[in-house]
Amino acid sequence: MLSALHEVMEELTAADPSELGDADSMLALHRELARLEAVVTRAAAAFDASRDWELDGSRSASAWLATRCNLPRQTARRRVSLGRKLRHLPVCEAAWLEGDVTGSHVAAIAAVRRTDTEAALARDEKLLVDNARNLRFEGFVRTLAYWEQLADPDGSDEREAARTGRRDVYLTESFAGMWLGKMTLDPISGAIVGGELERREDALFEKDWAAARARLGREPTIADLDRTPGQRRADALVEMATRSASLPPTSKRPAPLFSVFVGYETLHGRICELARGTVLSPGALLPWLEEASIERAVFGLKGRVEVSATSRLFTGATRRALELRDRYCTDPSCDEPADRCQADHTVGYAEGGPTTQDNGGMLCGYHNRHKRPPPAGP
């Protein structure tokens, strides 16, 4: 069998990449890659059980794989561990061997199997695998997170507290005077810091773009800008600290905004997540409620959203309704969060299209500039 596989691989590696560069070939190659990964993972578990690795004096199967197959130790451990877990996940194993799901899907499902969830997982494994087949990976991960909350409601708040407890910031001056650091934040804190950092980085990008256009007398390219993305992020962080230090102690802090979806659960299933799709336990919101603004969004028929008044709305309730309804750029190939997208008319305003929810949608800057034509009418 391995000889036949070797011969096929010889043919594939000898082929001109352009012969495999079409969409159908990409789909087929990735499907077969998933199947091969499943075979290798099952074999790694069988190798572990056979204890053949002891003949070389190795301490474990993963240590043998790391040494003899030149793998990172973490990769080798994950492969053996996932192979062991497959024994308890027959539906996942079958779907993976068919190429219907990937190792990332299987690893995500295996990660939620614990003593408190194993009975529910045995019952719902097929449902989760069907979601893995039919949803984009990000949507599948959100669905799995909600399933985990429902399967183990008592442990969800504890896991959320543990996740928050892993927050950490390391920042120290090096011997050369440069500052080195690393940051780990919980979902809500990360959304606050990351959102403001992105907002200020975008403002610096616009400034750099305008300066390059004025200097060159033409539309610039990314290579023409004075700063790299990393440099803009660093400058944005310094600006955030500078503005914070300049605020008077009595200044009012901006309140976080939480949106409460009324009727959404009936239409689309349970939801408790940040605007960018990070799933939270409801208990994660409790520490913030004294200083947060609450916005009610009522979902009616046909996805229409009525948004309540709040002190922290974006520009106009209609745009905010589109953000809450669409969540992401509406181009099927894009997952840019709605708060970084542009509200766009489906039927152009110049063609008489009204500025309403029914005629609007969120598109990122790229897909708004390269918009696909609306589907033809009946």
Describe the protein's architecture and organization.
- Strand 1 and strand 2 form a beta hairpin.
- This protein is globular.
- It folds into three domains: about 120 residues, no CATH class; about 80 residues, no CATH class; about 110 residues, no CATH class.
- Strands 3-4-5 form a three-stranded mixed sheet.
- With about 375 residues, the chain is mainly α.
Task: Give the key terms.
single chain; 378 residues; mainly alpha; three-stranded mixed sheet; 7 strands; 10% strand
Average pLDDT: 86
Order of helices and strands: HHHHHHHHHEEHHEHEEHEEH
Distance between the termini: 53 Å
Percent strand equals 5-15%
Number of domains: 3
Helix content: 40-55%
Biggest sheet overview: 3 strands, mixed
Radius of gyration: 25 Å
Shape: globular
Low-confidence stretches: 309-315
With strands numbered from the N-terminus, the spatial order across the biggest sheet is 3-4-5
Please count the beta strands (DSSP E, at least 2 residues each): 7
Number of helical segments with 4 or more residues: 14
Structural class: mainly alpha
Short recap of the structure:
Helix content is 51%, strand content 10%.
Layout: helices, strands, pairs:
Layout: H1 2-14, H2 23-50, H3 61-68, H4 73-86, H5 90-98, H6 103-111, H7 118-134, H8 137-151, H9 153-165, E1 168-173, E2 179-184, H10 187-216, H11 229-246, E3 257-262, H12 264-268, E4 293-299, E5 305-307, H13 317-326, E6 342-345, E7 360-363, H14 365-369
Parallel strand pairs: 3-4
Antiparallel strand pairs: 1-2, 4-5, 6-7
Helix pairs in contact: 2-4, 2-5, 3-4, 7-8, 8-9, 10-11
